[in-house]
Every structure is written in structure tokens, then in C-alpha cells.
Amino acid sequence: MLEKIDLSRSMDREEYKKTAPELRERLGALQRRARAARVPVIIIFEGWEASGKGTLMNELILPLDPRGFRVHYVHSSRDDNQNACWPPMRRFWDMTPPRGLIGIFSHSWYRLALDGISSPEERRTAYGDIESFERALALDGAVIIKFFLHISRKEQKRRLEKMDSDSSSKWRVSEREWSENKNYDKTAVKIDEMIQYTDRDYAPWTLIEATDRRHAAVKILASVTRRIEKRLDELSHSTQAPEAYAGSAVSEGPGGITFAPSVLKNLDLSRSIPREEYEKRLPKLQEAFRELQYELYKVRRPMVIVFEGQDASGKGGCIKRLTQKLDPRGYQVSPTSAPNDWERAHHYLWRFWNSFPKAGHIGIYDRSWYGRVLVERVEGFAGGDELRRAYGEINDMENEWSNYGTIIVKFWLQADGEEQLRRFNERRQNPDKMWKITDEDWRNREKRDLYEEAADEMMLRTSTTYAPWTIVEANDKLHARIKVLEVSAETVRQALGIR
User: Fold this and answer.
1) Beta bridge partners of residue 227, listed in sequence order
2) How many whole angstroms separate alpha carbon 248 and alpha carbon 460?
3) Phi and psi at residue 78, in whole multiples of 5°?
4) Are 347 and 354 in contact (CB under 8 A)?
């Protein structure tokens, strides 16, 4: 692909002076409109070393309000020990701009595949993660604009020699730049592959002939204004109301599964354990799980444990017994409530990527990203298209975590309606537990059947080989706590090969 690009394209000074100011004026106005419409914009500059990324980025930001954009310079993801503590895409989720602002990237997540990966299979895996990331952001409303700045091998060498001979720019030329020039043809093959695998209608690549600065600057300005204008025009002409979610009765999931009878209604909720047995088994299981925590730390494997379930199903009690004997330096409990204003300004998965545990640590979620397909579905905060996308986005995220080595355990705690009512009344009458019961809990109880329907579909669509759901019969709290500890410990043993 790159060899077919005409790198002789140029623009004379007079044409540049006539064209560039008009584009800058339009871009400044578009920035204000995008901010008012809460449209996030992501602009990526990739390209050959010495292709002029810094100069052309300056040309782009000249008409912009500096309060409305942020520039990120991305080093290779493989030369940073801090970044090695998390899945590769985590730091890029953290960099995504909130709604209405612009994020400009000098190099980007494409360094994952272009730097340090020699295996084509590994690169394709990285491109798959990138595609999931960009698709999720684009479908959430982001405008993604990707530039690759192209120059010839001869032009790159000329520029590197010029920089190397100037004391003010010599520091910018290292062995890495010369190595890229030496291996230009091999790198070009990887770049062609990158464009082939990640050029999508929602995040297309624009190749910039960067030999002539004026031509490159105008093409970039024109491309950015065109893409933002297109998105704003789409919004202004959109009158369609969000589609309601029809439910799961005739929906198909992975492998043609039909969401028919409820898996929750068929549970044997009478399962219980005598207190004497519970008190005997609990400390042994806790001590065993603490030892497994140390094993996780030694091999730098993170673990994610998710707790979902109806109100008063015993999530807090299970979490307390699970963590009671753990080293507090090696785990974190993240209670999930309604997102705040800053969290709502980002993709709904943004806050969960940011709370992901470090390598060797345990992250425990008291409710989680599944609120998207539970609370937001039942309360009507997410429409049909959003919910349909959410299942795939969640599976993609958990798959990335699993590929990084994360051990994922997901629990749904189920107590029947009668037991839930008994616990509600107990909380209301106990001064030490009154804080646990709210008007919202009573409102949610009225929608119990809707929540169960949503949970059924959630588990069928998102119970995967790498992140399966475990349903915990929770009418008896003692049984639930023992089962949570047993499943958590056994999952770690299997993952680490411990008998």
C-alpha cells in the first residue's frame, strides 16, 4: 500500500496562504460546537520517525482553545515498568478525552504492535484489542481520526542527517531512528499490515504525504474539519428516539442459545450448612485463600472477583469473609454506585479499566460494569442498541484481561423474594443495620422479576470460558460464604496448576 502513495505532492506558498486560514477558522468554530454537543474527538499521529509529527501537530492546534484539548506523547508500551503492571490497553483508556474535549496523540496504542512484537500472531491479537477499543469509543459517540505520515526512506535519511548535524536537534536522533531507516522495508510491511487490520469506517486511516509540509498541514486540517463536521451534522439531523430493549425471550446468544426458561427460577435455594460445620470450615478456607494470595503475588497474576445479585442477597457478608485474613496490601474492594459527572463524561467502561488491580493483586467489585445490562436496562437508562453492544464490549474487555493473565471469577448471589423481604424487615428494625436499607431498595424489589430477567440474559451472554459466572444459592448466608471461598480458591489453584 505505502509504495503506491505519490510522495511528490506539494502545495505552493500562495495556495497555502489562501487555504490554511479558512480551515483554521472553521476548525476553531467546530471545536466550540463539539464541546457544546459533548462530542469527544481523538486525533492520532503515527508515522515514520522524522516525518514531521511535532510540526504538523502544532499546525493543527494553532486555532484551538488550549483549554479544550490535551496532547499525549506515547512512548513504547514495552519500555515502561509501571505500564507492565496492567493490561496494555489500560493506560490508553485512561487517556481517552471526556465528552466535548479533544485528545491528540503523538504515537498511540499502535505502538503495541509496531514496537517490540515480532510475531504476526501477537500483532494480530494486539490489533484485535485495538479494534475493540476504537469500536467501543466510536459507538459511544467519539470521532476518531487517524493519520499516518509517510515519507520515503531517502527523505527520512536526509532529515535524520540534518537533525544529527544540528546541535539543537541532535538529541532527537538516537539508534532507534537510524535502525528504523536501516530496516525501512521491513517496517513498511508491518505498517501496511497495521492499516489493513485497523482501517474501519468508524476509525479510518488517512495517509498523509508528508514530504511537503504545506501540503501535509492543509490535508490534516481539511480531514479533521470534515470528520468533525460530519459527526455534528449527523447529530443535528438525528431525531430518532433511543430504541427500547425488547427483552430476551426470543434472543439468541453465543452458539445459538435461546434465552427461554430462567436459570435462576430453577435453583435449589434450600441448600444450607450447619453453623458448626461453617465455623470449622471457614477459617481453614480463609487461611488457604491467603496462601493463594501470596502465590498470585509471586507469579504476578492479577485476580478480579465480581459480586452481583439482588439487594440483600449477602454480597457484603461474602466479601467480608473472603477478605478477612488476606494481606490488606494486596487487594482492593471497589463498591460500584451510580457514576459521577466525570465518570459519565467517559465511556461507561472507563472507570473500571482505571480500577483494574495491579499485577499480583486482587480486585474485588461489589457490583460492577454489569450495571450497564442490569440497572441501566431495567431503569431505562440505556437503549436497545447500547445494551446489545454492551454484551460484546464486556466480553471483549474481560477477554483482554484474561489474555494478560488475569484470573476472573464472577458470582451472582440469589436469594428468593421471601428471604429478601425478611432481610429487608430485619434491617429496618435493627438500628445497626438501618443504614443498609433505602427507599431505592424497596423500589427495586417491585422490579424484582425484571432484574431476574436481565440477570438471566446477562449470564447467558457473558459466561465465557475465560470469565464464567457462578450462581450462589444465597438463602442461607453460611452456605453462600463457604461456596464463594471454595470457588475462588479452586479457580486460583487451577489457573496456577496447584493441586
Assistant:
1) none
2) 10
3) -105, 5
4) no
- At residue 83, the pLDDT reads 62
- CA–CA distance, 422 with 334 (Å, rounded to integer): 27
Residue with cell 489500560: 90
User: What burial class does residue 8 get, using C-beta atoms within 10 Å of its C-beta: 0-12 exposed, 13-18 middle, 19+ buried?
Assistant: exposed
Q: Which residues contact 151 (CB under 8 A, 6 or more apart)?
A: 7, 47, 48, 50, 51, 52, 159, 210, 211
CA distances from residue 191 to 2, 49, 182, 492 in whole angstroms, order as listed: 8, 13, 15, 39
Give the DSSP H/E element, type plus range, for residue 65: none
d(CA 202, CA 59): 25
CB 116 within 8 A of CB 76: yes
Tell me, rounded to whole angstroms, the distance of Cα 286 from its chain centroid: 32
Report d(CA 344, CA 327) in Å as an integer: 33
The CA distance from 215 to 10, in Å, is 5
Q: Looking at residue 244, what is its pLDDT?
A: 64
Q: Which residue segments constitute the domains of the chain, with CATH numbers given? A: 2-237 (3.40.50.300), 254-496 (3.40.50.300)
Residue type, position 325, single letter:
K
SS3 category, 314: coil
Q: Three-state DSSP class for 333?
A: strand
pLDDT along the chain (499 residues), means of 10: 88 96 97 97 97 96 96 72 79 96 96 80 91 97 97 96 93 92 94 94 96 97 97 84 56 49 82 97 98 97 97 95 97 95 97 96 98 94 90 97 97 94 88 78 85 94 96 97 98 95
Q: Which helix (H) or strand (E) holds 309?
A: strand 303-309
Q: What is the pTM of this model?
A: 0.90
CA–CA gap between residue 8 and residue 239 (Å, rounded): 45
Which residue type, as a one-letter code, is found at position 102? I
| Residue closest to 231 by CA, chosen among 294, 356, 166, 139 | 139
Supply the DSSP string of 185-221, one letter for each residue: HHHHHHHHHHHHHH-BTTB-EEEEE-SSHHHHHHHHH
- CA–CA distance, 379 with 367 (Å, rounded to integer): 16
Whats the size of the chain, residue-wise?
499
